[in-house]
Amino acid sequence: MSRLGSWAAAEREKLRGMSVGQAIGYILTYYWIWILGIAFGVWLIVFLAVHLIAGEPQYRLYAVFANTTADAGNGSAIWKDFQAFDDFESDDEKVEFDANFFFDYTRNQGRGNSYYNAFVTLADTGTLDLVTMDAAQLAALGQSGRLMDLNDPRCAEILKKYGDRLVWYEPPEDADETEPVPVGIDLSDSLLVTRYKLYPGNCALGVSAQSGRIDAVLAFLEFVLEEGTTGA
Predict the structure, then answer these.
(1) Cβ of 67: how many Cβ atoms within 10 Å?
(2) 107-147, pLDDT tens digit by residue?
């Protein structure tokens, strides 16, 4: 019998002597990482299959609001209000707001977190445009390379309008960069906090490194930072 077969037989024998509750507890305790990995694998297969069959959706903006329990997905008040604010009109492009992500890059760089793995898929495929979360968490996430350096010429208008709100990360000592890198815009006094209650106070926005819709990110920033000052 192979080593894998021997291991499987030994595990079956252990489970055979347990009650259903004990067996479930044993599996969750010792195999939770495997379970998360399998769940993410299934999600990724379904995600790719849907995109291959239906074709890649065309987005005006794809936003992730991480680590919030507030209602901020499609159909929410913020989703409706942003579309009313944004003057872009196209039947072929949609606004996607997703508030179903919970991860903290400061903790083990997201390893073993299925939400983070799903976030990476959105970011690396160019689907994601922006992400919001706690400012310190966002700064840490910037070190992953998945947030745009706001000194990038593509972000010139964002930097011009909101350069007094920058969130930075300090490069590690062995990195090529030596100066702090701006990867976020502080939104702690924005509508995300005051009107929609997505966060208790501290939050910031990062632009996905692969985003091709910086104009839509700028429109979102104008909405959450300037809409509240117009009385609208």
Answers:
(1) 17
(2) 888 788 889 999 999 999 999 999 999 999 999 999 999 99
- pTM of the predicted model, to two decimals? 0.74
**What are 225-231's contacts with CB under 8 Å, separation 24+?**
225/162, 225/187, 225/190, 225/191, 227/81, 227/85, 227/191, 228/190, 228/191, 228/194, 228/195
**Nearest Cα to Cα of residue 112 among 23, 14, 213, 38:** 38
pLDDT digits (tens, 9 = 90+) for 78-96: 999 999 999 876 667 899 9
Phi and psi for 217 in degrees, rounded to 5?
-65, -45
- Is 12:4 a contact under the CB 8 Å cutoff? no
Q: Per the structure block, which two tokens stand in for 84? A: 């009313």
Q: Are 151 and 182 in contact, with CB atoms under 8 Å apart?
A: yes
211 with 126: CB under 8 angstroms? Answer: yes
